[in-house]
Amino acid sequence: MHLWHPRAGGWSPLTSDRYQWLEVDLGERTKITAVATQGRYGSSDWLSSYLLMFSDTGHNWKQYRQEDSIGSFPGNSNADSVVQYKLRQPAVARFLRLIPLDWNPNGRIGLRLETYGCPYSEYVMSLDGSSAGLVYRGSPESRQTSTEVISVEFKTQRNSGMLLHAEGQEGHGLSLELDRGKLLLPSTISPRLASLGSLLDDQHWHHVKMERRGFHLNLTVDKHTERVQIPADVGAAHSLSSHPPSVSKKNFHVCLENLLFRGLNLIGLAKNNDQHGNVTFSCAESVSVAVTFPGPRSFLQLPVVTASSPGGVSVGFQFRTWNKAGLLFTFDLPQQGGVVWLYLSDARLRLQIHKAGRALLELTAGSGLNDGQWHSVELTSRRGHLTVTVDKEEGGTATANPTFPVAIDSQIFFGGKWLIDDTKECRNPFNIFQGCMSHLTLNNLDVDLIRVQRKQLGNYSNVQIDMCGIIDRCSPSRCEHGGRCSQSWTVFHCNCSGSGYTGATCHSSVYEQSCEAYKHNGNTSGHFYVDVDGSGPIKPQLVYCNMTEDNTWMVIQHNNTETTRIRASPGVNQYSVHFHYPTEEEQLSAIISQSEHCQQELSYHCKKSQGSPFSWWFGGPGSGHPQTYWGGAQPGSQQCSCGLHGDCVDPQHYCNCDADRSQWTEDSGLLTHKASLPVRSLVLGDVHRPGSEAAYRVGPLSCRGDKNFWNAAFFDKETSYLHFPTFHGELSADISFMFKTTSSSGVFLENLGIKDFIRIELSSSTQVLFSFDVGNGPLEVHVNSSVPLNDNRWHRVRAERNVKEASLRLDHFPAATQEAPADGHFHLQLNSQLFIGGTASRQKGFRGCIRSLQLNGVTLDLEERAQITPGVRPGCPGHCSSYGSLCQNQGRCVERDNGFQCHCGPSAYTGVFCTTEVSASFKAGTSVSYTFKEPYELMRNNSALPSSIYSDMTLKGENVSLSFRTFQSPALLLYVSSYYREYLALLVRYKLDSSGDAEVLKSRVRGVANGQLHSVSIRRTAHAVSVQVPRTNTTHLTNYDCVCAGTTTGTSLSLGLCVCSDSEELDPDLSRLASLGFTGCLSVVHFNSISPLKAALLHPDTSPVVISGPLVQSNCGSSASANPYAAVNTHHLSGKTFSGNRNHPGFFLNTEDYYFAFFDMLKQKCCSFSRIGFFGSYVRQKRKKFLFEICSYTAKKACTKIRKVNLILG
């Protein structure tokens, strides 16, 4: 169709504004496929953008939208060129309306228009709910198939009612029912199988299709499809009816078009049949004119056509919106009597009457009015009685008896009213209303909105008349993974709480994809949620991560991992058991697939119970496949572990149980063939004979190694790259990877389309840039780092783009986000190859390593592609520079091909990061002795030892640290002796002989034998000793010859340390304490580079240790079990930080309560047998006395050469 005149040169209205339109009547409903525009001939008049509207009746227009949100179409850039736009979804309509949005600023609106389409065939019928409708019953001879298709087009103004009902031969069936504008699929067995669509009561045609395949059904409403499983009792449809009266609701009025069933157009058949009753074969629809308020400056101003009766008014209308708040209408009372405001607040209807800034009256009615449904409102005031009614009998009513007349002065504003304040600017005292209104009445007279549109009545601004432009942005929901969608008029929001996902659309998982990833975040063994496919459809699952020094295991339990015994039962020839795993099938398959190794223990204990061929097991995907090999053997071998190693109890058999012996024996081992895992069920056949007994055990499934986490490639040139198939992330895309480099820039990833693109790059040594274009122009998101990113350490990048926003995360820096345009393009359309490590132009390539690259939860196999690509090498070594800091307590980081390992050999700790305390419970008779090299071992093959050997055997000092917990006092914790009878001892409550030569320094150490965990650190050099206990000051002593330090304060408990004695025998007090033994806990004992307690517990056979009495390893030294006062508070005292618990008796609430003054040493060196006293201050507070005592001694010789050293614990 052409619309222009050679002389006029095209259409050009007298006024160029956005309230003009060009309407085309095609004569009949036509399938419109494209439109083309051109400027006015020989002029500077053309449109640069426009809207398209369609209608069947010339009223109730519907805007055509691209991608469900884009409303505008690109126009022309000159008057001569033709711009054609093909409609992605053809529109079926009789009327077309084009509304100009923008035009040449140096000209005016000018247009030549052409439309493209084809005839449309239709069979239409109208049902009013009172007739029997349409009923089709198939003949008994009709062929029943497992695949059936039912499709229909419908339109209605009612939001509830029965649409179709299909019934099978057994009486069971399916229905299509409209409920609050949504299409439900109930059955005679289940009340709701599916819910799809929204706002289906808009009096526009909607397409519905049901496609049944077996017990699965695809339900399509317009362009959106949902797949559901139907009950087995619902068979093939035998009859089809359109809303039978027995189940119809409220005289449901609906128009149906082209009802197709089994290839037949049932409306066409009924039309050709004379016995069609009261059915009307046309679509009779009432004309209802709506008005849309889309923006902040929308309003509709109407005069009061008929004068109100004295003191009376009546206003009625219907509205629908998603907003909780907004002004519905306002008017002034006569004679400056005040202002009436009717508005929404918190989705409730509120009426306020104000005068001179004072509220004269307030009413509230209704609730939940922002649900997108049509709601009716009536305000009436007669004879001093004011009533506000919402939804008539179904809603609520509020009444009042004002003492003043309520009437409209001269005009009423709907949707908004802009007031001029003191700043001469427009303001709206309430939130704007965004929504639709219809059926407006003033004083019981209908408002003719068509006259308003033609500017023959009232005034308006920024409204759309004769259409309701409401959009349900939550149908279909853009919230993924079960996120709950809510919306306003312009945007939607996703509530991701409880879903395990995050982001604007709940797209990205909050959990890691494997235990390996948790380990490299610094976590130790425990239960974790693992999301094996990241943002993919597989749900997170709870697993146990067993992180050992060597490997990281993902452990998945089932319903019975204990050894279970069975006995012969009369009449029972077989015993079968099934194992149920808490994870779903797709989760198990993904875990096994991405793991480097999986295993599961299978043990069969037997007594006169043969295995093969009477017993077998099922393993693998689904319900599993029968397997005849057993733990430790190979698939298909029909053997057990002993058969593989040749050590079965009977060499004639390949399994121990096959020997059929009357003594207990077993066949056990690990199943490691991943295709046969996990074990699903077990069948034991030889359990019915007298005397037959058996037991089985199927352990949990354990998998280690994450192939995806360590999949890496090294790019050694800026021109090198890897290419993969096109990335498909039209609506949502997340990209995550790790990189390390020494370069300051380079492109990590790029994928191009015709106009669209997506790219992630290192734009500088401190910035990562994420850029893309989906048709709205390039958009960039960047994150700046406070540290250089080209430090050859691993850095993590996570980028996400969805219909709401784009976000970029780098390491642990805060995420950067950019919102997407509310009504812009949102489909990302790419068509080229995906380039990794470079670009299609081979410029700005990346040099370095990229690892664990995932796009929408799918890992790209960089190593496989790198093996066949020049300039790129698979794998990337060097992980300790990034993860070495995880190895604590003197643990050493060791490189591995895939990752790293913390070597805890020199540490007193163990565990994956050398953070697990090695602790043991001691009893009175328990001791551990660690012996260093004897002198005679060095003398065996040497007649004379040079002085250097003695020098090497000399200890210049000691670093001793340990933790203990005990109620015993006094007690000997640690004793070190030398070949020359020099010793070091650590004691609890060691009271010095008061007659000895002692010097005293006072402090507040007390209460260590209280069952709580305490740590002690001792450091001795040739001329200084320091002792440190947490929550106390460090005690120092310098220039000593021999030192014995301890504490004693009345009834308080104390620590003691003695170093160096020239006595040939053990100190009598120490001998007495040693005889008492030690009862309690010792943990993380460290002496220089030796960890004697760890050696005794973990390596007793290869270490020079002697263990006496019961030594039990426990977790008594762990921080979790140490102090019942777990809460730690930090306070400041004299510029120093002290930590403690308020409930602890030694915790000081106020820095002014106690003070401690320490005197400097007066002399730096003490002479033989001389005395020097150092006295501190003490205070009394609540009759409690706190003292710190240091006693110093001098000896005849210095303790600098230690030959033989014995270290004894306990």
From TrEMBL:
Q: Any idea where the Fibrinogen C-terminal domain is?
A: 506-558
- Cellular-component GO terms for this entry: membrane
Membrane topology label: Single-pass type I membrane protein
Q: Where in the cell is it found?
A: Membrane
Classification via Gene3D superfamilies: 2.60.120.1000, 2.60.120.200, Galactose-binding domain-like, Laminin
Q: Where is the F5/8 type C domain?
A: 1-118
Residue stretches making up the EGF-like domain? 470-507, 877-915
List UniProt keywords, sorted A-Z.
Disulfide bond, EGF-like domain, Membrane, Repeat, Signal, Transmembrane, Transmembrane helix
SMART domains, per the entry: EGF (SM00181), FA58C (SM00231), LamG (SM00282)
Pfam families assigned to the protein according to its UniProt record, in alphabetical order: F5_F8_type_C, Laminin_G_2
Residues annotated as signal peptide: none
According to the entry, every stretch annotated as the Laminin G domain falls at 124-283, 289-468, 711-876, 920-1116
Question: Which InterPro entries has this protein been placed in?
Answer: ConA-like_dom_sf, EGF, FA58C, Fibrinogen-like_C, Fibrinogen_a/b/g_C_dom, Galactose-bd-like_sf, Laminin_G, Neurexin-related_CASP
Q: Which cysteines are joined by disulfide bonds?
A: 849-876
Q: Indicate the principal place this protein occupies in or around the cell.
A: membrane
Q: Its family?
A: Belongs to the neurexin family.
- Name of the protein in its database record: Contactin associated protein like 3
Q: Which organism is it from?
A: Sphaeramia orbicularis
Q: Gene name, please?
A: LOC115436826
